[in-house]
């Protein structure tokens, strides 16, 4: 079995500042949400052994707020910045860990969450996949190269407002 934790970055700051979307940081609410999501992961004993993350400032800040072990194999990938679902799945197929955390952006991350599952969570925010949305899904596979659409079972889903 392989486990995927699929997370959209926390709430970003739209008040100006950086000249590029890639460099946009989290706002104060986003930083609090990232910390809450880290507590939620710890409370469910969900610690990844590999992290695949977009290179954007807001995904990096989200990861920092989770307060995970710095020893986790982490790859910052420009290809995950605003990636469509098919590119996210392609990246996942190259993973090596048993439990992989991916942090990215909508619409791709939400479309990926929907497309990999056999049954969707009944959470009213799942289809919107708002900032900080986090899905934990299990694949009945032994190698990530076998990950595919409609092959995962949802174990948990949360959004920061639930925490």
Structure notes:
Pfam families: His_Phos_1. This is Phosphoglycerate mutase. This protein has 163 residues and is α/β, with parallel strands linked by helices. The chain has a single domain (2-13, 20-162), classed as Phosphoglycerate mutase-like (Rossmann fold, 3-Layer(aba) Sandwich), CATH 3.40.50.1240. 26% of the residues lie in helices and 22% in strands. The chain contains 4 helices and 6 strands; from the N terminus they run βαβαβαβαββ. The chain has helices spanning 28-43, 57-66, 85-92, 108-116; strands spanning 2-8, 50-54, 73-77, 99-104, 134-139, 152-158. It has a 6-stranded mixed β-sheet with strand order 3-2-4-1-5-6, sandwiched between helices. Helix 1 crosses helix 2 and helix 3 (85-92) crosses helix 4 (108-116). The protein is globular.
What attributes does this structure have?
4 helices, His_Pase_superF_clade-1, globular, His_PPase_superfam, Phosphoglycerate mutase, 163 residues, Rossmann fold, 6 strands, alpha/beta
């Amino acid at each position: 079995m392989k486990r995927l934790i699929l997370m959209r970055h926390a709430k970003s700051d739209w008040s100006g500042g950086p000249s590029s979307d890639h460099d946009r940081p989290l706002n104060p609410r986003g930083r609090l949400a990232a910390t809450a999501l880290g507590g939620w992961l710890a409370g469910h004993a969900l610690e990844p052994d590999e992290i695949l993350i977009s290179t954007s400032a807001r995904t990096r800040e989200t990861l920092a707020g989770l307060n995970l072990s710095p020893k986790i194999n982490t790859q910052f990938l420009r290809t995950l910045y605003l990636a469509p679902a098919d590119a996210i799945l392609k990246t996942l197929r190259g993973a090596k860990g048993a439990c992989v955390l991916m942090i990215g952006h909508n619409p791709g991350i939400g479309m990926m969450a929907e497309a990999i599952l056999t049954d969707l969570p009944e959470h009213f925010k799942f289809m919107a996949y708002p900032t900080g949305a986090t899905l934990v899904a299990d694949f009945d596979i032994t190698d990530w190269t076998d990950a595919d659409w409609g092959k995962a079972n949802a174990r948990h889903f949360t959004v920061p407002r639930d925490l």
